[in-house]
Write a structure and sequence with these properties.
The protein has 12 helices and 8 strands. It is an alpha/beta fold. An 8-stranded parallel β-barrel has the order 1-2-3-4-5-6-7-8, surrounded by 6 helices. The two termini are 16 Å apart. It binds 3-methyl-2-oxobutanoic acid. 3-methyl-2-oxobutanoic acid binds next to loops.
């Protein structure tokens, strides 16, 4: 491959520069093989801490550890070439102090090779975000519904449904933008508020359940593929892979039980091409 053919990976500044421009396509991925598929179509791959619920079956994202995020972040980097890979900082890895946040964010950047990290929280995280950005850590922020706060907010309900709650979320978005975040995820807020936030901040807003009035969108991949049993109401299913997988497994099980499972003569040489 010549130097010209090499695929240049998108960076946090590239995504920042897309404010108000072509919509930014983001999706989660936790594995090398799905990252390879997502990479062809998306600008940002988020290794979200939603992996705790999606891959591991936890009820919330709270039990997710830094080591889990690093392992999957590394896998996604191996599977992708072009998209900016952002790795979520899990609950407990960044809130205690800005120094704790830097030490753990530096570990994530060094050990995965990803291009940015994401932290939840607005005004309360602004000082930490500024500290990280000043020290070379690109930060995607996350306001509105912040799932890591489940034990204090009580449920995964939409935020800012009443106009009275808008000011706090707007202050959060403005604070993270001022602190130097290169983009901000806005989760589960009503369209008029998403529109207001997108107009108010100079960084791209990435919506999840926050209407089209954002600079980009993100979904949890397994949710939009129909692979998770329970999804938020706003999720559109672009695929329904569950029944396909179940049928393939059932066909395989039937062949094994009927002793019609193909022998080695059907298996070697390897089929397909190396990816
Ligand atoms: O963890 C995650 O997947 C996320 C997205 C839902 C934005 O934070």
């Amino acid at each position: 491959m010549s130097a010209q053919d090499e695929i240049k990976r998108l960076t946090a500044p590239d995504i920042f520069a897309r404010k108000g421009g072509e919509p930014i396509v983001c999706l989660t991925s936790y594995h090398a093989h799905t990252a390879r598929l997502v990479d062809k179509h998306c600008d940002v791959i988020l290794v979200g801490d939603s992996l705790g619920m999606v891959m591991h079956g936890f009820e919330t994202t709270v039990p997710v550890t830094l080591d889990m995020m690093i392992l999957q972040g590394h896998a996604v980097m191996r599977g992708s070439k072009r998209a900016l890979v952002v790795v979520d900082m899990p609950f407990g890895s960044y809130e205690a102090s800005k120094e704790q946040a830097f030490m753990n964010a530096a570990r994530v950047l060094k050990e995965t090779g990803c291009g940015a990290i994401k932290v939840e929280g607005g005004t309360r995280m602004a000082e930490t975000i500024a500290f990280l950005v000043e020290r070379g850590v690109p930060v995607m922020a996350h306001v509105g519904l912040t799932p890591q706060s489940i034990n204090t907010i009580g449920s995964f309900r939409a935020q800012g449904r009443e106009e009275a709650g808008w000011a706090r979320i707007e202050a959060d978005a403005l604070a993270v933008a001022k602190a130097g975040a290169f983009s901000v995820v806005i989760e589960a807020v009503a369209e008029p508020l998403a529109r207001k936030l997108t107009a108010a901040v100079a960084i791209p807003t990435i919506g999840i359940g926050a209407s089209v009035a954002c600079d980009g969108q993100i979904l949890v991949m397994e949710d939009m593929l129909g692979l998770t049993p329970l999804v938020p109401k706003f999720v559109k299913r672009y695929g329904d892979l569950g029944p396909g997988i179940e049928k393939a497994v059932a066909d395989y099980a039937a062949e094994v039980r009927a002793r019609t499972f193909p022998g080695p003569e059907h298996v070697y040489p390897m089929k397909g091409k190396k990816v």
